[in-house]
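Internal tracking record. Fields below are filled automatically when a chain is submitted to the structure queue. Please do not edit lines marked as system-generated. If the sequence contains nonstandard residues, flag them in the REMARKS field before resubmitting.
Queue: standard
Priority: normal
Entity type: single polypeptide chain
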Amino acid sequence: MSEGALAGIRVLDFSAMIAGPYCASLLAGAGAEVIKLEPPEGDYMRSREPIKDGVGLYFAVINAGKHSVALDLKNPGAVALVRELAAKSDVVLENFRPGVMQRLGFDAPALRAANPGLVYCSISGYGQGGTHAALPAYAPIVQAASGYDLANLGYQSGIERPLNTGIFAADYLTGVHAFGAICAALVRRARTGRGDTIDCALMDAMLGMLGYEVAEAQAPVMKQRPLYQATRAMDGFVVLAPVTQANFEAMARAAGHAEWIGDARFASAQARLANWSALMDELDRWAADKSAAQCESAMAAGGVPCGRYRTVREVMDSPYAAERGLFPEARAGMASFRVPNPPYKMEGAGARPRVPLLGEDGPAVLQRVLGRSPEEIARLEREGVLWRAK
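SYSTEM-GENERATED OUTPUT FOLLOWS
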């Protein structure tokens, strides 16, 4: 693999759980050197299931390509090492609750005093200041508080309670925004030499993706817009998107029901909107004696936007994933598994196939970055400053 766009950029990553680590994984995928700082017990995600050959795969898929350094920050020697690493880094990333980094002495002003060009990014639930900053926040909490869950409930039929969630959209979305902001700050630093302080909030990220809902809250629409819903086939579901008139007419022909085109209920966009449920019922009747694959194939042949509902495992094993190289193999200890590549293609970008064991890279990082001798490193380990998984 050729060098990525961020080759030569060093990231000191204090973050844990999902949002910060995902941002850092995107930086690593673009070629940055990411030094993940962990406590002696490791990132909490290391012990989360699923587990394979002793390796937490949930941790692995969002931490591939990083270097793990485990330090006990209760020890003054560890604090000094962190300051030295920050002085030799381009980016610091953290997602503690606001105020924690300041108490540790690692806030932006403190670290930038020795490194004026440092790009310092903080991820939190509600931002670094204001009346909400101290509130504890996890993705499901913010997804509820942002309006997202009730907006989604409003699109359901026959459901009175907000939907259960196990997908932490707020974390991943905020990680993407933080990645973009860090890259933008690095571009400005290249022009001006000036560092930057970035404040990314999960709440802001969720509100930023509710474009229609923000508009509709200010100018309420009396009639509901068309909803994309599942069409039931014999063995599963497909979703179709007859957005334009051309899409609709192509869908009618692909379904073998060209008469829908002249049906007064469906002949225009306004008529289809008024009779949307009737159109969805027609699609259910069409698909009832076909497999989901047959439905998808028929619509694809007609140039109609259509997708079959698949499991994640099916997509991972699909020709599409293979053609795009989406899931390269990675290793951690004796375990091998697949991790996602960055969701974009460019020269030198791609998942780095190694997942570090806890503290595995501490000695090498201290020797390479800080010039510590093997004897000094051994002393730091004896004194409980530097840790490694045994």
